[in-house]
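Form P-L/3: holo structure prediction, ligand zinc ion.
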Amino acid sequence: MGYCSALAVFGHAVSPPKLNSEYKASSSSSYRRRTISLLKQCKHINQIQSIHAQIIRNAHEKNPFIIFELIRLSSIFNSIDYAFKIFQHTHDPNIYLYTAMIDGFVSAGSYIDGIYLYNRMINHSILPDKYVVTSVLKACGFELAFSEGRQVHGQVFKLGLGSNRSIMLKLIEFYGKCGEFKAVIQLSDEMPERDDAVALTVVMTCYVDHGLVEKAIDVFNRVKVKDMVCWTAMIDGLIRNGEMSRALDVFREMQREKVRPNEVTIVCVLSACSQLGALELGKWVHAYMGKYRIKLNQFVGAALINMYSRCGDIDKAALVFREIKERNVITYNSIIAGLAMHGRSIEAIDMFREMIGRGIRPSSITFVAVLNACGHGGLVDLGFEIFHSMRRDYEIKPQIEHYGCIVDLLGRAGFLEEAYNFIKSMKIAPDRIMLGALLSACKIHGNLELGKQIARTMLDCRYADSGTYILLSNAYASKGKWEEAVQMRAKMKAAGMKKEPGCSSIEVNSEIHEFFLGDTTHPQREKIYKKLEEIIQMLKLEGYSPSTEVVLHDIEDREKEWALAIHSEKLAICYGLISTKPFTALRVVKNLRVCNDCHTMIKFIAKITRRKIVVRDRNRFHHFENGACSCGDYW
Ligand code: ZN
Ligand code: ZN
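OUTPUT (holo model):
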């Protein structure tokens, strides 16, 4: 089969480069030039392969320049195996061919193969050059191959490449990845320029990779002229270490220094905004993007959708979605997950259908999002249908997360026994999240017997965390079984577990204010507590009585009321009430699940103040308006 017909079989629209046999007759150097230029025009591995076949037919397969191009391009087209086949058929490969092949392995993430081939090269007494050394050092860093990397360092020294800047940077990165900070500091001190911004950025990244945030900040402060890469690396590092507010502070500082961010910076900052629920700042970043013409590509688009939906403004997220011209699976996943989290199940499922209608193949993540939508919407039959279509229509094997969605779907809809049987019928072991979801469902539907059974399974699997004990304790308490409730708390204490402290944050004037349970550290605390007292009095007139059953019985009634009153979300909302204009919407992010009492109270607050209050808790969004919540009191 000639290469033209081979291309026709693969259906490529690109017109294939032509390699006429007349070149056989011409001189070998012009044949070489012509072939290399044709190879460089290729758009697909199939084209490379057909030209390769021609080269073999014309008996030119030994030309090292052509082989170099073949190896280089095959690895660029993700055909590392094909590249290696060519390499293996080469007699006495030279340093360039080794470099192309090692580079190919490293770019493909086959680091071990890269290191192995490098050693083979050394054993064949071929002297490495600076290109192959940077490649292999990268591989050693990713594989944490400390002794191999140190040998390369030794060779670098012997070859007199020790002062090469790019090699030094790679060496710093390698030692940093291996956690050898002494070597990192020594090498960075040896850099020809003391304030080499790139080198210091590499050192900084080494520290943040190992969670050493303070050390990283020290290095960051040492950089005199910080470029965009340096700022972005610091912001990204802080976010990866959970330091969202600090990341945003660094971003603000970057603005003051008038350094323009790029797409990567924007995606990082938007992710910090989503996690903190900082809508105002997120909006500002969005406006900034428009002003500085930062392209709304698929990654930035997805980050914007996530930011708006996780900060409570799902309508705006949907608008951004419509603005993105080239939508891919990531774009759709973001909007489907957002709609699901906001309880807009039907829209989420419509979006899923639109995606399939446009020929975009759903991924495993898409199914988690769409099954969640079914769960929040109580759509049991549809959920099962979609679950089965995964394997049937898309050859995606359901993972533990998908099974978890089905258990949650059944549990929420009150099919507790069915959910339990479903878990027992699974071929994989249930995880903590799945059992925890069913345990919550048992509590909500008042099935204490099954709840106990599940809690026991969780204790057996060592899955129980403080949440399990508290859930069980509360389940007992809500049935008036105080004795057992207290025992559960005691067991939890004995197991050395503490409840994760509740924390809520609210954004007022682009600033995030955090509150903990019974927090008295806020500068406005007196006003906040006064407002809280005032609201409780008003609510009492409306016939509200705090549901005290979820607190243990050994506290006096009055104290019980107070203990409930100071859940962090109440403090955050009261702060919002005193510091914003009437009728302004309030947006609160809470790290744990909202309790019954807070939920009831927020509904009343929304009614009497005529405000919209949006609360994001651990699982979902609650949109409070006119005395009702979007979750339909089911969460
Ligand atoms: Zn509460
Ligand atoms: Zn709700």
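COMMENT: Residues 1-26, 549-556 have pLDDT under 50 and may be disordered.
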